[in-house]
Amino acid sequence: MKKNIAKLLLDGLMLAAVTLFYSKHTFGMQFHEIGGLALCGVFLVHLTVNARWVRGVTARLFQKTLPWKTKLGYAVNTLLLLCFALIALSGILISKTIFTGISGDASVWKPLHYFAAALTIVLLGVHIGLHADFLRGMGRKLLRLPRPLSSVLLTAALVLVVSFGGYQMVTGSFARWLSAPFTQSTHTGQQQGQKPEGAGEQNRNRGKGGARQEGGSAGGVAQALTQGAVYGSMILGTAFVTAGGERLLRLAGQARKKEARGSSV
């Protein structure tokens, strides 16, 4: 139980930290670069904590008896590792404050940086959604709410998060980031200094010339909370959709097995 709680805390901190790096203007470019690289290191720690699961699945990856859900989870984790590696590499090559002596072609590496960041949102959501049963069980043990109340709260959270997250994906920069390596217009815009930012709410927090408005630590915290709500809703919205889809597939599989047993009698 304590080990599971520790894993949940690590995952929760990672999720909260991830949302802070989707706008370099929240706490400044230096924080964005140093903290982003540190976060990539934390992800490696996360994989190390779950090394036993990784080794076990790797050894049985191509066995037919291995559930499809486990194989999908393995694929998602592999893609997340590749995304974090690409984010770190591209971040170093387009660095403005830390690795100024190392440079790459910005027209190539910036779109890849944005693309990997956007894909990470989806992959994190799928990763969380595949563990929905475990998270739901842990939540009930920790909160100990009556089942009817927990069902109402979960349904309300589902509607709010999916609606808000979907809205942000459509109206914010997510789609532009995801298509960045494949659209010439994005490349041209970036070369002219038009860098994709976060959702619309974040752009209003910036001053003229793209600089962050001076509002002290309170302004930075407020912007961080807004940013966390925007990108957190995208991740959790994807998680809810994934969990719902997985549940439907599981129920369909159970129905097919029941039908097969009935026809064989």
Topology, pairings included?
Elements: H1 2-19, H2 29-49, H3 51-60, H4 68-93, H5 106-130, H6 132-143, H7 147-171, H8 174-178, H9 184-191, H10 200-203, H11 216-264
List keywords for this structure.
single chain, 265 residues, mainly alpha, 77% helix, globular
Q: What's the total number of strands?
A: 0
Helical percentage: over 70%
Number of domains: 1
Task: Write down the overall mean pLDDT.
Answer: 80
What class do helices, strands and sheet pairing give?
mainly alpha
Shape: globular
Count of DSSP H/I helices? 11
Oligomer: single chain
Distance between the termini: 43 Å
Question: Can you walk through the features of this model?
Answer:
Helices cover 77% and strands 0% of the residues. It has 265 residues and is mainly alpha-helical. It has one domain (2-264). The chain is globular.
Overview in brief:
With 265 residues, the chain is mostly helical.
